[in-house]
TrEMBL record, chain A:
Protein name, entry field: Nitrate ABC transporter permease
Domain ABC transmembrane type-1: 67-251
InterPro entries assigned to the protein according to its UniProt record, in alphabetical order: MetI-like, MetI-like_sf
Membrane topology summary: Multi-pass membrane protein
Record field: transmembrane: 75-93, 131-149, 192-217, 229-250
PANTHER family documented for this protein: ABC TRANSPORTER PERMEASE PROTEIN MJ0413-RELATED, ALKANE SULFONATE ABC TRANSPORTER-RELATED, MEMBRANE SUBUNIT
One Pfam match: BPD_transp_1
Lineage, highest ranks first: Bacteria, Bacillati, Actinomycetota, Actinomycetes, Streptosporangiales
TrEMBL record, chain B:
Localization annotation: Cell membrane
Tree of life domain: Bacteria
Every ABC transmembrane type-1 domain range: 60-241
The protein's name in its UniProt record: Nitrate ABC transporter permease
Lineage: Bacteria, Bacillati, Actinomycetota, Actinomycetes, Streptosporangiales
PROSITE patterns: ABC_TM1
Record CDD domains: TM_PBP2
Recorded coiled-coil stretches: none
GO-annotated cellular components: plasma membrane
Species of the source: Acrocarpospora corrugata
GO biological process, one term: transmembrane transport
UniProt keyword Ion transport present: no
One Pfam family linked to the record: BPD_transp_1
Family: Belongs to the binding-protein-dependent transport system permease family.
Automatic annotation (TrEMBL), chain C:
Keywords of the record: ATP-binding, Nucleotide-binding, Transport
SMART domains: AAA
Entry protein name: ABC transporter
Organism: Acrocarpospora corrugata
GO terms for MF: ATP binding; ATP hydrolysis activity
Keyword set includes Kinase: no
Gene3D superfamilies assigned: P-loop containing nucleotide triphosphate hydrolases
PANTHER family associated with the record: ALIPHATIC SULFONATES IMPORT ATP-BINDING PROTEIN SSUB, TAURINE IMPORT ATP-BINDING PROTEIN-RELATED
KW ATP-binding (keyword) present: yes
Ranges of residues in domain ABC transporter: 2-231
Length: 265, 260, 259
């Protein structure tokens, strides 16, 4: 793969244009209003969100109005959950007793479908951004927390013995041995949380919101604007893809040692 | 060893009861307004009542039905597709970009589309659940097939077995533990998607509908109790499938002992 | 400087080492050799304070070892798990020096000096997974050297490298430790190596490990891979130690056969 370089990797994507052409043909032949042609979806996406002035990278007012709040909630919730999850996860992972005490609670917390938090939180608190934020934080903290705890608990014994032999202080053991060793698992948890945060963002906007991408999607559906519904789905798909891809890029930068070390062993 | 397990279970029980007791005390002393968040004892009582409540059970049954058929359909579609892509390397290379573009689409975004496409609420719920649950099964199946020991395949081939029997006798059994893991993940995903579709789309019956109705009646105690049952159902399904995997694939776990 | 008094350790019902008595003098290179499963690692881990022995005492400079002592370093056999893959060679060597209260610049200088001493001055920025096994073990040795311990414990330090690298590393350790006047306790299963490296060879029996022999190696220094190994004295010593180690295994062999 690496030998062929960028061109080779691009060539592997031949199926994407083929699939698009087939999709286009199929929708034109079927001529069903529920299944608009991809070309008309793309045109609608451009109209809705990317026909704005150049100075705003083509973004329309509608785009800024709906992307802004959505992405703001998504990232704020994810970052807060990530910080809290790592902190709690380290504490739980480094103390077997604490882990024992909390295990059933954590297992239960993880098992509750996060989207069910949406109606409960909206019944408890006012509908609005703070509640949506709370839903995202509470819903996506589990993968980070459990993965961090697992990563901190399963640090190679020899790493820790080396640290003991050379008399590392407790903060040093944590910061320079345990955390780096647990980092691959922490990142795996953060990645899961990111995709979950996107899902919760959409659900919370579908159920109780007056702004954001999910709200736009809901309005389109309620008004039977089929092309718009598809446009929103494609937009969310692209958003999910970009979030995942940029996170993977970040991960491969930060965890270069991990990926290359694994390749050589 | 058994004392060790004993103390772990004991501590877990202490932790869980401790949390419940603290919350109960917070409610009783007025630290938490009980009109805002109901008492733990109230929620527990509601949960117990719901377990024998015919109406609730009908809702639960509707959700379980959608979940079961969604999972069955997922397995029926994703396992053969995964086997095919796993065996035929070029097909997998070709399909991978499509998988990587489709998988990150947040499945809940498809709910409004499914509402428009399906008049039948069971089909609507199943469709979104199948979409989300397919990925773990598909990817684990491909991975499992890829992991098959080539020596085992060659051994069988050298005895004159055709490609069909090689898949049936070697590939499928050795990939089975991975497929089982994928199915277990898919089971949890399908639960989430079914109840989410219910909450978002509404309908006649289903746990999500029950929760919505309790919400409009401002019955937070019932909402929490019902949600707790969904969580417990998820834990039970997961535990059951883990136990089944351990039993059925003892050979596999022995081989991987210490690896994972 | 190191004194073991009736050192005994059991893991549950398994009796790993039994009443080991041993004294190591300042500046001595002592090799502990024995068949596999003779509790060599248990011995080393007790001395390093990584486990608390169930019986007997470990005295370092006359003081009992309780936690890991600060004038002791260990070179483990499994270099791939004792170097941190997320740190460069330089960072791996300089990290333990934080305990010495040096500032960052002084730590890096000391680490660089140690890496240069083991012949890795130009590879300081490399990561462990970019290095061969022999290079990684050199980094481990450099880390121990930079730490300036009085006692250096080595657990099968050359067990995972090829024969030629092994010879290079043996000479390297002898040279730099003599230069720094370090006391070394080296654990190995290799009879040949124990005689070549050691001033003294201590033989352990199979589990429960106990001292069955203690020979002084009276060979002229500095040692040389070719010339030392062809000395009559070397050949004789090697045979003596070999007999002591194998004597045990031969007996076992008989037991198995007659059963």
């Amino acid at each position: 793969m690496n030998r062929k370089g960028f061109a080779g990797r691009l060539a592997r994507l031949w199926i994407v244009p083929v699939a698009l052409v087939l999709w286009e043909l199929a929708t034109r032949v079927a001529a069903q209003p529920y299944f608009p042609a991809p070309s008309s979806i793309v045109v609608r996406i451009q109209e809705l969100w990317f026909s704005g002035p150049l100075t705003r990278v083509l973004l329309t007012d509608a785009a800024i109005e709906s992307f802004g709040p959505s992405l703001g909630r998504l990232f704020a919730g994810w970052v807060l959950a990530g910080l809290a999850g790592v902190l709690l996860g380290v504490a739980i992972g480094r103390s077997a007793k604490l882990a024992d005490y909390l295990d059933p609670i954590l297992q239960f917390g993880r098992a509750v479908p996060p989207p069910l938090l949406v109606p409960i939180f909206f019944a408890l608190f006012q509908i609005g951004t703070p509640t949506q934020l709370a839903i995202i934080v509470f819903g996506v903290i589990w993968p980070v927390l459990l993965n961090t705890a697992d990563g901190c608990r399963t640090v190679d014994r020899q790493y820790l013995e080396t640290a003991r032999v050379f008399g590392f202080s407790r903060p040093d053991v944590l910061r320079r041995v345990v955390l780096p060793a647990a980092m691959p698992k922490i990142f795996a948890g953060l990645r899961l949380s990111l995709s979950l945060a996107l899902i919760l963002m959409v659900v919370s906007e579908l159920v109780g919101s007056t702004s954001g991408i999910g709200y736009g999607l809901l309005t389109a559906q309620q008004n039977f604007l089929f092309v718009d519904v598809w446009a929103y789905i494609v937009l969310l798909g692209v958003l999910g893809f970009l979030l995942n891809a940029s996170f993977l890029l970040l991960e491969s930068r930060i965890l270069a040692w991990h990926q290359r070390a694994r390749r050589t062993i | 060893m058994s004392r060790l397990i004993g103390s772990t279970v004991l501590r877990g029980a202490v932790g869980a009861t401790g949390l419940l007791v603290v919350l109960e005390a917070a409610g009783r002393t007025g630290l938490i307004d009980t009109t805002f968040l109901p008492l733990v004892s109230t929620v527990l009582a509601r949960a117990a009542e719901l377990a024998v409540d015919g109406e609730f059970l009908a809702h639960a049954f509707a959700s379980a039905e959608a979940w079961f058929w969604a999972l069955a359909l997922t397995i029926a579609v994703a396992v053969p597709a995964g086997l095919l892509l796993g065996v035929a390397r070029p097909a997998e290379v070709a399909a991978r970009p499509l998988i990587e573009f489709l998988r990150p689409i947040p499945s809940v975004a498809l709910i409004p589309l499914a509402i428009m496409l399906f008049q039948n609420q069971l089909h609507m719920r199943m469709s979104v659940a199948v979409y989300a649950a397919t990925w773990p099964v598909l990817i684990n199946t491909i991975y499992g097939v890829r992991d098959v020991d080539p020596l085992a395949k060659e051994t069988l081939r050298s005895f004159g077995f055709g490609p069909g029997s090689v898949v049936l006798r070697v590939v499928l059994p050795s990939a089975a533990p991975f497929i089982a893991t994928g199915v277990r993940l898919a089971a949890s995903v399908a639960i989430i998607l079914v109840v989410t579709a219910e909450v978002v789309a509404g309908g006649i019956n289903g746990i999500g509908i029950f929760i919505n109705q309790a919400g409009s009646g401002n019955r937070v105690d019932l909402m929490i109790a019902a949600t707790a049952w969904v969580g417990l159902f998820g834990i039970a399904v997961n535990a059951l499938l883990v136990a089944a995997e351990k039993r059925v694939f003892r050979w596999h776990h022995k081989r991987l002992a210490g690896v994972s | 400087m190191l004194e073991l008094v009736d050192l005994t350790h059991r893991y549950g019902t398994y009796h790993a080492i039994d009443r080991i008595n041993l004294t190591v003098k300042q500046g001595e290179v002592v090799c502990v050799v024995g068949p596999s499963g003779c509790g060599k690692s248990t011995l080393l881990r007790s001395i390093a304070g990584l486990i608390k022995p169930t019986g007997g005492r470990v005295l370092l400079d006359g003081r009992p070892v309780e936690s890991t002592p600060d004038n002791l370093a260990v070179v483990f056999q499994d270099y791939s798990r004792s170097l941190y893959p997320w740190l460069s060679a330089l960072a791996n060597v300089s990290l333990p020096l934080r305990r010495r209260g040096l500032d960052r610049k002084a730590r890096d200088e000391a680490a660089m000096a140690a890496l240069t001493e083991v012949g890795l001055g130009t590879a300081a920025a490399k990561f462990p997974w970019e290095m061969s096994g022999g290079m990684q073990q050199r980094v481990s040795i450099a880390r121990a050297l930079a730490y300036r311990p009085k006692l250096l414990l080595m657990d099968e330090p050359f067990g995972s490298v090829d024969a030629q690298t092994r010879e290079e590393l043996e000479d390297l350790v002898l040279r730099v430790c003599a230069h720094h006047g370090m006391t070394i306790l080296l654990i190995t299963h290799d009879v040949d190596e124990s005689v070549y490296v050691g001033d003294r060879v201590v033989v352990l029996s199979k589990a429960p490990g106990t001292v069955t022999g203690d020979l002084t190696v009276d060979l002229p220094g500095p040692r040389d891979q070719i010339r030392t190994r062809e000395l009559d004295a070397f050949v004789k010593l090697r045979a003596d130690v070999g007999r002591m180690v194998r004597g045990m295994t031969n007996n076992n062999h008989h037991e198995v056969e007659h059963r």
